[in-house]
Design a protein that fits this description.
about 70 residues; 2 helices; about 80% helix; about 0% strand; mainly alpha
Length: about 70
């Protein structure tokens, strides 16, 4: 795999992991009644935003672990 392909795979997998994780955090927030788009910045809105950030970070971490496990196999 060339360096350009490796960098493309890294960027796409990071982006996909972050977006999927953020959407999962958003969905978990909605299930808990934490709407990030509610008017104003109440505690429920802030907790929902925190869940989206946490989900995005976990998704990014999962994507990087996936890439590392793939590199060990090669």
């Amino acid at each position: 795999m060339s360096a350009a392909q490796r960098l493309l795979l890294e960027g796409l997998s990071d982006a996909a992991g972050f977006v999927v994780g953020a959407l999962a955090g958003y969905g978990a927030g909605l299930l808990l009644g934490l709407d990030i788009f509610h008017e104003g910045y109440g505690m429920a809105s802030i907790a929902g935003i925190a869940l989206v950030g946490l989900g995005g970070g976990l998704g990014l971490h999962a994507a990087r672990r996936w890439r590392a496990s793939r590199a060990v196999k090669e």
